[in-house]
């Protein structure tokens, strides 16, 4: 089986609950949709679990906007990126790291942050912008209209931030693939449209984590609830 998992935001409790629901076999694949940390404080434990999972399973780590920003901030030393992290959960992410590391985010001390978050930046070296599997294109947020017919879209910053209302959700990528995205928490049940499925079930807000099972066309929520993805209605054949 292949499972596409929504935004984690360090919600290790829901990740562990969901893994218990899935009870994965060793040849199962996990495709994560990004935003691994920030908002909740369990950074180190979450990253350790992700590294453990990738040793036992094939894992695909899609990059989220939080990874995009942390990378630009710490590795490219773009100081102005710190504002986003301080506002959207970076301070919570560093709660378990002690005062010096927490201050490093206030003072743009990149070497301290790079050292503290080494397992995060290790994971980032494996990340991809998007991943195609079955009839799905897994990505963090969305495509831009001009990318819908590009076989290998090159992501821009906007791809990691785009909101559902700005996505042509009835349109399929390459006329074939439905986008599977997170990034915007729309509700505690998946949102399913012709060309767009959202599985951010709110783990970053203390709610649920969801996994779309590619083969079974079902979303499993971390509390065990299951949501079948309705098959697209076939066009009526005119006799
Ligand atoms: Mn996001």
TrEMBL record:
It comes from the Bacteria. It holds the Pfam family Metallophos. GO terms for biological process: RNA decapping. PANTHER family: METALLOPHOSPHOESTERASE, ZINC-DEPENDENT ENDOPOLYPHOSPHATASE. Gene3D superfamilies: 3.60.21.10. One of its GO terms (molecular function) is bis(5'-nucleosyl)-tetraphosphatase (symmetrical) activity. InterPro entries: Ap4A_hydrolase, Calcineurin-like_PHP, Metallo-depent_PP-like, Ser/Thr-sp_prot-phosphatase. One of its GO terms (cellular component) is cytoplasm. This is Calcineurin-like phosphoesterase domain-containing protein. Residues 4-187 form the Calcineurin-like phosphoesterase domain.
């Amino acid at each position: 089986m292949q499972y596409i998992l929504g935004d984690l935001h360090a919600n290790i409790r829901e990740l562990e609950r969901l893994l218990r629901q899935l009870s994965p076999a060793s040849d199962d694949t996990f495709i994560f949709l990004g935003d691994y940390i920030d908002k909740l404080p369990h950074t180190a434990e979450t990253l350790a679990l992700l590294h453990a999972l990738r040793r036992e399973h094939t894992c695909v780590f899609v990059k989220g906007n939080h990874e995009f920003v942390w990378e630009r901030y710490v590795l490219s030393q773009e100081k102005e990126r710190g504002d986003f992290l301080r506002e959207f959960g970076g301070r919570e992410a560093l709660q378990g790291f002690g005062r010096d590391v927490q201050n490093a985010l206030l003072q743009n001390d990149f070497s301290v942050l790079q050292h503290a978050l080494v397992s995060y930046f290790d994971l980032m070296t494996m990340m991809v912008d998007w991943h195609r599997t079955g009839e799905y294109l897994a990505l963090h947020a969305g495509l831009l209209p001009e990318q819908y017919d590009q076989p290998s879209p090159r992501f821009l910053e906007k791809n990691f931030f785009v909101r559902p209302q700005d996505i042509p959700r009835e349109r399929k990528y390459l006329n074939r693939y439905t986008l599977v995205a997170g990034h915007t928490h729309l509700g505690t049940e998946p949102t399913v449209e012709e060309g767009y499925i959202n599985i951010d079930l709110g783990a970053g807000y203390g709610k649920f984590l969801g996994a779309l099972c590619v083969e079974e066309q079902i979303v499993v929520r971390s509390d065990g609830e299951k949501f079948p993805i309705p098959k697209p209605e076939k066009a009526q054949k005119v006799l």
